[in-house]
Specification:
The complex is a heterodimer of chains A (276) and B (322).
Chain A: H1 11-35, H2 39-45, H3 57-64, H4 67-98, H5 102-115, H6 123-132, H7 139-162, H8 167-175, H9 180-191, H10 193-209, H11 212-217, H12 226-236, H13 241-261, H14 263-274
Chain B: H1 15-20, H2 42-62, E1 65-66, E2 76-77, H3 81-88, H4 90-121, H5 126-135, H6 143-153, H7 160-163, H8 165-168, H9 177-205, H10 209-217, H11 222-233, H12 235-248, H13 252-259, H14 271-281, H15 285-310
Antiparallel strand pairs in B: 1-2
Classes of the chains: A mainly alpha (276), B mainly alpha (322).
Chain lengths: 276, 322
């Protein structure tokens, strides 16, 4: 399937690609270097100086300022969101792919509209809603809407993967006399493991990186999440660049670990953002 | 299929109902049983409605009230005052201008970058795969992390501007409207680029190789092939991606909140940020709801266009009915 069969190397494309690679990697390198440098060394050497020392004191400072607690809150929100998505989305995707009901088709169109309504747009009424049911300033109050806003896209991703299941398998299992429940648990779920892994990764990424909902729906430091913590660190310590960079790195490490172990699911999930 | 509308409750297991639904194309095949009913979609739909659709209803209600967001002081009905304000608010006009500028700049930077890197990444050489894996790094970071990273790098006193004055001048990038917008567009590009690289990589790999072979036989050079085959073949992807970028510009909200807080003098306050400002800084949630509803309508229009242009709503499996 080679789309490019010319023997001549593509110099223009290649040099552009390498230039962009540098633009991606340089800030990442500067970030890591700054985070491992003491504040005094950073201030005297500036952002571009070669690495001169190796210290973890910035990370220690971040933890002292409560960043560990913010990371824990983000982890709780992530786990809660994934749990809700796992309970709600697979049955919905199954219904969309296999049901003959007109109602389900309407639901699917509704979700497509929902896909284009970002959480940013409904934060005010959400604040009112969460406030009215007494969940303001609680982790649960962040988890519930976060999970709701990943439903449209995760459903779309999972329906794509469930459609790949061969029709003959459905026929075989129904000849065995299986109803929808048995079909779902013995055929659909095992065969869409890849899609389910993708929606886990995607919803986890969304919950972990979410910023606006926790910003608006919480107030106290006890329930602050890592992204909002970063923003408030920047306001308070914008001159302590090594400290800020270490906090940024702390928020990336968990996702980086996921990336190493589940690269395929992560890429598939993010490609799902674009649709095909 | 229109007569099926009233038949939702018919047991899907009965062969008769399938035949009535014109589902017997598969002549001689076994009967299809065990299809899930509408009930399977109910939990997710209810949940989604409570947290995504019900708020829309609340937004309509709040837009007719004065509400400062305090729990002990419930919203007070004020009629159409908030809506009238919408049409006389100079802040809205400015905000629409900033939003349009950001959207246009985002599209004209992200599409060309996505096409170039994506088409290049579609090649099968091993080192290209390594480069693409590295391209991916910004996507692992939250928008907040990307914003704090670049905010620190561009700090006028401790960042790159101090080290490279010949490039950055006085370094006060966020202090002037157009340089602030340029910084936001760049950070948005940096953070979102891997996504569009992936999308165009997938699309470019889908272009039939035979087209390129034919072009080569005709003696077309690389540039000619790119403009006469690759670009036209990517047309649909470009349309979809453009819409994604337009809607995605709302996520630039995070960048703006962290880096500029809408400044200088609201010069970077795109509509979602202006809404946030009215609601949670000026504590006027009623007027904020009016802006929110304007945004909902805009989003719905974009979404409908997307569904029409991409055929997303054709939901039946390609496996079915074979």
């Amino acid at each position: 399937m080679a789309t490019r069969t010319l023997a001549r190397p593509n110099w223009i494309g290649g040099s552009f690609a390498v230039a962009w690679l540098l633009i991606i990697l340089l800030p990442v390198y500067l970030m890591v270097r700054a985070a491992l440098e003491s504040r005094a060394a950073y201030t005297s050497g500036g952002p571009l100086a070669p690495p001169t020392e190796f210290t973890l004191e910035n990370f220690g400072l971040s933890f002292e300022l409560g960043f560990g607690h913010y990371l824990l809150n983000a982890a709780i929100i992530t786990v809660g969101t994934v749990a809700i998505v796992l309970v709600l989305v697979p049955p919905l995707a199954y219904a969309i792919v296999r049901s003959r009901s007109r109602g389900v088709k309407t639901v699917f169109r509704l979700l497509l509209i929902g896909l284009a309504i970002p959480a940013q747009v409904v934060v005010i009424p959400l604040y009112y809603l969460i406030n009215s049911i007494g969940l303001y300033d609680s982790l649960l109050g962040v988890i519930l809407p976060t999970a709701a806003f990943v439903i449209p896209l995760t459903t779309l991703i999972l329906t794509g993967s469930m459609r790949e299941i061969n029709n003959e398998l459905y026929e075989a299992i129904s000849m065995d006399g299986a109803g929808p429940i048995r079909t779902f648990f013995t055929l659909v779920v095992p065969l869409s493991r890849g899609g389910i892994a993708t929606i886990i990764v995607y919803s986890a990424l969304n919950a972990w990186n979410g910023f606006l909902l926790p910003l608006i729906l919480t107030r106290s430091p006890e329930v602050m999440v890592a992204t909002v913590g970063l923003s408030s660190f920047r306001q308070q310590y914008s001159v302590n660049i090594p400290g800020l960079m270490s906090a940024v790195i702390l928020t990336i490490i968990p996702i980086f670990v996921v990336y190493l172990f589940a690269r395929r699911s992560l890429v598939a999930g993010l490609m799902g953002v674009g649709g095909k | 299929m229109s007569r099926v509308v009233t038949r939702e409750h018919v047991q899907t297991r009965s062969a008769a109902s399938f035949e009535e639904r014109g589902d017997i194309r598969r002549t001689g095949g076994p009967r299809l049983t065990g299809r899930p009913g509408f009930l399977w979609s109910v939990p997710a739909v209810l949940y989604f409605s409570v947290f995504a659709l019900l708020p829309l209803v609340f937004a309509v209600y709040l837009s007719f009230t004065k509400y400062n967001g305090i729990r002990v002081a419930p919203p007070v009905f004020v009629g159409t005052a908030n809506w009238e304000r919408l049409f006389s608010d100079p802040g809205i006009a400015q905000s629409i201008g900033v939003t349009l500028a950001l959207v246009v700049l985002a599209v004209v930077t992200q599409i060309p970058l996505g096409v170039l890197t994506g088409v290049w990444a579609a090649g099968r050489q091993r080192w290209r795969a390594v480069v693409v894996a590295l391209y991916f790094i910004p996507l692992l970071m939250s928008t907040a992390a990307v914003s704090v990273l670049w905010g620190s790098l561009l700090d006028p006193n401790f960042g790159l501007p101090a080290a490279l004055p010949w490039l950055f001048g006085d370094g006060n990038l966020l202090g002037r409207q157009w340089s602030a917008i340029a910084v936001i567009v760049f950070i948005y590009l940096w953070g979102a680029s891997p996504l569009y690289t992936l999308i165009f990589q997938g699309a470019a790999r889908g272009i039939p190789a035979v087209l390129y072979q034919a072009a080569q036989i005709d003696g077309a050079g690389r540039a000619r092939q790119f403009f006469s085959i690759t670009l036209p073949q990517l047309r649909n992807t470009i349309v979809t991606t453009t819409i994604l970028i337009v809607v995605g510009t709302f996520t630039a909200f995070d960048i703006i909140l962290i880096l500029t807080r809408g400044g200088p003098s609201n010069g970077t306050a795109i509509l979602p940020f202006y809404m946030y400002q009215q609601a949670f800084i000026s504590f006027d949630l009623g007027y904020g709801s009016v802006i929110a509803l304007v945004l909902v309508v805009l989003c719905a229009i974009v979404s409908l266009v997307m569904v029409r242009l991409t055929g997303y709503d054709k939901m039946d499996s390609s496996q079915e009915g074979i």
